[in-house]
Sequence to fold (894 residues):
Amino acid sequence: MTDTGSLKITPMLQQYMEIKSQYEDALLFYRMGDFYEMFFNDAEVASRTLGITLTSRSNKNDANKIPMCGVPYHAAASYLAKLVKAGFRVAICEQMEDPGDVKGGRIVRREVVRVVTPGLTTEEQLLDTKSNRYLAAVAGEPLKKGENQSAPRYGLSLVDITTGEFFVTECADREALVDELARLAPAEILFDEGEEAENAKLGEILKTLLAEICITIRPAHTFYPESARDTLLGHFQTMSLAGFGCEDLPLGISAAGALLEYLRETQKTELSHIEKLVPLDLQDVLLVDDSSRRNLELVQTLIGGKREGSLLAALDRSCTPMGARLLKRSLLFPLRDPERINRRLDAVEFFVRTPDYREALRSILARVYDLERLNSRVVLASANGRDLTALKISLGELPRIRDLLASIDTGILHEIGVDLDLLEDVRDLLERGVREDAGVTLRDGKLIRTGYNGELDELHSILRDGRQMILDLEAREREKSGISNLKVGYNKVFGYFFEVSRGRLDNVPDYFIRKQTLVNAERFITPELKEFEDKVVGAQDRQLELEYQLFVEIRAMVARESARVLGTAARIARLDFFLCLAETAVRARYVRPEVNNGEAITISEGRHPVIEQALPAGRFVPNDIHLDQESEEVLIITGPNMAGKSTVLRQTALIVLMAQMGGFVPAARAVIGVVDRIFTRVGAMDDLRRGQSTFMVEMSETANILNNATEKSLVILDEIGRGTSTFDGLSIAWAVAEDLVEKNGRGVKTMFATHYHELTELALTRQRVKNYNIAVREWNDSIIFLHKLMRGGTNRSYGIQVAGLAGVPARVVGRAREILKNIESGEFTREGEPRIAATKALARDPEKKRGPSQLSLFAPPVEPDPIRQRLEKIDPNSFSPLEALSLLYELKKM
Fold:
């Protein structure tokens, strides 16, 4: 807190400082009337970040001015989003009572109602509708006294407060933990303050992988197993966690409990939309490590990190935000169980074969809003009139969805139709209670429908018809009293009154109560007029207050049905997921894969799902691939740059992944024996942030593959050993390929693209290694890429021709051809002159002194030739015919 020095502390400032002392790590939005005000250092930070004017609060002659700035409360969301995006936490401090009701100089009571952080925000400006926004917590395995644990286990938990999803798992080591965090990309991570050294290591690694990550250190006691478990049991109101299937995850429970405690502290409300804790069982999913996800560009491009150009963008034709998020999760967590995969494929196939159903359901889903995030805002008491209207519209579409699904009698789609809760009572409540045009601001009225509440209807009537009601009352009293000149008046001091002239005072009824005496008249009040006065004078304020109260009541009633809303949202998401995959399959001409537990992968006329969309129709050249563990386990693929080796490799991995997520694939036919992991080693790129060179990155990825690949894995290698010397690189590439074909006696299904043509000779020594090449045709000293995978190896890379196509100057290309010719025929002349330099040098100086012969870098080392040695020892002039014949037999044996 900023030192206040000799400042005069007012009650308001004292309150501010007391609240701020509880939230030192956050900017405090302190509500004063229609503004959120900030003071001292908070004001200086906010004014710089938000670009708003910094003012001061002080007396005219006060030299100690207090920096301050403010933002309008009705526009606070955009300012909050900007601050959170900049990495700040913001504590929202509200007025907890009406300032008009505060008497006697007492200050308005204020409290922090929630804390907004990068991982805990419901502001739409910060949320990607197609992606989850996760908050994570990590619990390390505590070391015993004197124990040196090089590879500790970790507990990991994640929550998306905007949808209510709550996950827990455990990771065998730091590498597995980092991989899961990279996969789910949380916006904020909670660490145990007691694990300072380990937190520093993890934080350094994570900041290199995740562009925007906020690390929050939490008290160690929140991670204690006992307190964490108690926190979870208290929230879920259960006696154990066995029903969630996570009793055997003690570290995961520690992380989940710490995470839930953080939510309770910051959100200060019931978290009823977090209704279950779901274990992430990584044994049931196809694993793709972080480098492979990036290389395959599953959810974002390798260069620029953009969604457009990724596999996710190519597949996404979802109609709802829930379906889009489920599509992304399914892409990150494909299945390994053929039965579950085929159930998904059955649903997709149904919609592929029934365009009427598909189009009808998609048109309905397009009118369904984000039920998960609407529900979260309702539960967190931040939903406005527009949110409840969107929820009402969405629920109104459910009967039509169930009617369409009713005729489907089997499979997942039947289950969705049967289990779909129409939430008719919730919809009826919203229909009766919330106006169609209900707005964002809750204190401005126009929220509640006419007919929902009698008192509110009367207030509306008073405000609309008040004058006529006064005239009607005046007419009734004239008739009852017989005073023809009776009239109703009003002033600010006495309010409403009946005025009677002195000449008619004898006719005043006994229920008239004298209020004021004038020279020529008396003024009276009646119980009915007083009641009307009370209604009219406070009608506007009462109407606004009552509308707000009724809206809050309706919102609370909807919040109590959170579990049902989330169940319906989950079923709509699954339906949208199947419709999305079906729509993509129809538009892109995909086919249903045959998925089984076999060992073979056979793809006929496979295509790359992303590149194909970027090319004109019919331009993509399809290719066939077959991999098994009996005859074609390791494919050595050679060919020039730009011919399409990398495309064939990547499309094979993507087709397998698409099949195992339950989608159709870009091929004429595909038979996929499920794989447990996909590994890729693609391209060359420095990781300067981690201080790793191109070759070190390459070797690290290669080591990961060799250490973790199993006989059920698929390995994609695109160049190995190119970052070191030719012989070193070739040796490494050969040894890696050899290890993959022999691993555990079964080998690993592998596609290996390389420029080391020598690797094709591996097929001569290993039966399960097969050679392929990407075909080209030469034409007038140039080449034409056919992009077709052909059986057999090649001994040319056509690098010089590709250089020419890339625009390298003709003189350089010509010289390169000359040098290549020299190298291919031997690096040195007979006189020992390097041939690379000989052509031009000898032309200038034919008598140039010849140097001694040197060993070639390109020719193999020269060893003694026994045949040559034997021939050097004989004298042909002294040989008889019989001796010559015997020598021939001897040489033949040699």
Q: What stands out?
A: The chain is about 40% helix and 15% strand.
